């Protein structure tokens, strides 16, 4: 009997002690820290509690602090975890809790991969390259965390139906973002108790006929229609505004700055209007449109984007007009995108003014290409560089002559291997004679063609300012709006 009791005591003692091998601690039962630990931990059992008891798990800048693969119902609490490559990493794990910890000074603070129904709550997550990332998972709960001074604060990648409440995410390079995937990956349960830099997150799903409140810090519209985003200041997120499967909405008169993507459209976000925004100093793209068509981008200031001012991927029949586009990266970049219209833009001081990859059928006219390092780059793309009425684009490097004085260059055609009708002066609406001014000479040309259509001998295509094949009060209105400009 005594021997059996001794064996039982020995087994119990063995179960509660971690096993240490090759500088790694393996924990397979409930465990409470009694001092700081300087080796990584691998969790080898389910249904256990690891209590830091206020002590620190301290790494040397690499490896994984707490590694859980295929684990469930494990609780990690009450500790500081610092200075690992991954401070906490869950792979293929479910129903675990990470609560009340200080997670700091790592590349990945808390990383969940292919893991579902876990709870991350009440943690302080600071000074990491990545604070919280959920990738390829679902139905996780992220509640009441303080996520500050990281590069990425909270990011959700190709993951669905996660719940976020009462998280304070601030002073990160990119506070918050949801990235990549199909519509289901953008479906999240997130309310305005979450804040970025002290401002509410508005993550709307299946909403219609609403205006986003003026105090917004982050805006996502998922499967929404007829939403207005206006007069907001949206900064320091992965996207300033995210649209996924959202239609017939308007984004206007906002300042969108210092995000990775200023505006991000995905999953058939069609028939939206982007107008009169100041989209500046976004680190990747000013406007990034993927798999979305028939949008209008007009009258925006799109500057200082490192990769591209406007990027289209597999997006067609969009209109880009009247924008000021000036970036250290490309001005416009179109990849596998077709039948877009690009007109009336000032495209200045970009790396490539406009760049095409396998993109055909677009019309590019009445743009001013000014001092771009390369005005055009085109790969396996065939597009039209005039308006169909013998008017092309202005090129600051065009050095040909206008032999007949009509304001259209006549030498070295096609210019940039593209434009057969280069303008001699920057484009001005209603400048019928292309001399760089809107004045009585243009009014005379309009008068001579008044009330004609394209079938009449007196019709002048250069006075048909709205290109509707009619010269009437609508053209006169355009001239009035630009009178004495130049």
Q: Can you describe this structure?
A:
Among the domains are: 155 residues, Pectate Lyase C-like, CATH 2.160.20.10; 42 residues, Type 1 dockerin domain, CATH 1.10.1330. Helices cover 7% and strands 40% of the residues. A 16-stranded mixed β-sheet has the order 6-9-12-15-18-21-24-25-27-30-33-36-39-42-45-48, with no helix packed on it. The longest helix is centred in the first third of the chain and has 15 residues. The N terminus is likely disordered.
Task: Looking at this protein, list some descriptive labels.
single chain; elongated; 16-stranded mixed sheet; nine-stranded mixed sheet; mainly beta; Type 1 dockerin domain; 49 strands; 486 residues
Task: Sum this structure up briefly.
The chain is built from 3 helices and 49 strands.
- Provide a count of the helices: 3
Helix content: under 10%
Spatial order of strands in the largest sheet? 6-9-12-15-18-21-24-25-27-30-33-36-39-42-45-48
Could you name the CATH class of the domain at 18-172? Answer: Mainly Beta
Provide the CATH topology of the domain at 18-172: Pectate Lyase C-like
- Low-confidence segments, given as residue ranges, are 1-15
Structural class by SSE content: mainly beta
Radius of gyration: 30 Å
For the sheet with most strands, the description reads: 16 strands, mixed
Shape: elongated
Overall average residue pLDDT: 94
Secondary structure tally: strands: 49
Q: Using the 3D structure, state the CATH architecture of the domain at 18-172.
A: 3 Solenoid
What would you call the quaternary organization? single chain
Strand percentage: 35-45%
CATH superfamily of the domain at 18-172: Single-stranded right-handed beta-helix, Pectin lyase-like
Question: N-to-C terminal Cα separation, in Å?
Answer: 106 Å
């Amino acid at each position: 009997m005594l021997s059996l009791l001794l064996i039982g005591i020995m087994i119990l003692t063995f179960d509660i002690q971690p096993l240490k091998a090759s500088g790694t601690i393996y924990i397979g039962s409930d465990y409470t820290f009694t001092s700081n630990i300087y080796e990584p931990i691998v969790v080898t059992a389910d249904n256990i509690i690891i209590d830091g008891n206020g002590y620190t798990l301290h790494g040397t800048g690499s490896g994984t602090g707490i590694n859980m693969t295929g684990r469930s119902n494990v609780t990690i609490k009450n500790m500081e975890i610092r200075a690992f490559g991954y401070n906490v990493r869950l792979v293929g794990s479910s129903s675990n809790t990470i609560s009340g910890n200080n997670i700091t000074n790592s590349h990945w603070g808390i990383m969940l991969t292919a893991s579902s129904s876990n709870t991350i709550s009440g943690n302080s997550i600071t000074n990491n390259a990545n604070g919280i990332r959920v990738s390829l998972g679902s139905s996780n709960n992220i509640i009441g965390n303080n996520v500050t001074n990281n590069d990425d604060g909270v990011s959700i990648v190709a993951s669905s139906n996660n719940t976020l409440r009462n998280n304070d995410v601030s002073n990160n390079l990119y506070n918050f973002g949801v990235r990549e995937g199909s519509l289901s990956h953008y479906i999240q349960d997130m309310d305005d108790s979450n804040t970025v830099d002290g401002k509410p997150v508005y993550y709307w799903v299946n909403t219609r006929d609403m205006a986003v409140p003026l105090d917004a810090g982050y805006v996502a519209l998922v499967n929404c229609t007829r939403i207005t985003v206006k007069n907001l200041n949206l900064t320091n997120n992965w996207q300033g505004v995210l649209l996924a499967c959202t239609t017939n909405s308007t984004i206007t008169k906002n300042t969108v700055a210092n995000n990775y993507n200023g505006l991000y459209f995905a999953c058939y976000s069609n028939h939206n209007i982007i107008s009169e925004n100041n989209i500046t100093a976004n680190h990747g793209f000013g406007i990034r449109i993927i798999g979305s068509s028939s949008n209008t981008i007009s009258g925006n200031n799109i500057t200082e984007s490192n990769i591209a001012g406007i990027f289209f991927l597999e997006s067609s029949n969009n209109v880009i007009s009247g924008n000021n586009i000036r970036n250290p990266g490309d001005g416009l970049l179109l990849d596998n995108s077709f039948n877009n219209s690009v007109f009336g833009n000032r495209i200045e001081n970009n790396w490539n003014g406009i760049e095409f990859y396998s993109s055909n059928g677009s019309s590019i006219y009445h743009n001013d290409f000014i001092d771009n390092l390369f005005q055009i780059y085109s790969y396996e793309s065939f597009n039209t560089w005039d308006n169909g009425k013998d008017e092309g684009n202005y090129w600051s490097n065009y050095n040909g002559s206008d032999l007949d004085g009509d304001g259209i260059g006549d030498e070295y055609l096609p210019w940039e291997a593209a434009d057969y009708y280069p303008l001699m002066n920057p484009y001005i609406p209603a400048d019928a004679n292309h001399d760089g001014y809107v004045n009585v000479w243009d009014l005379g040309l309009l008068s001579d063609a008044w009330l004609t259509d394209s079938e009449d001998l007196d019709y002048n295509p250069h006075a048909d300012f709205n290109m509707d094949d009619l010269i009437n009060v609508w053209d006169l209105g355009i001239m009035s709006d630009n009178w004495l400009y130049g």
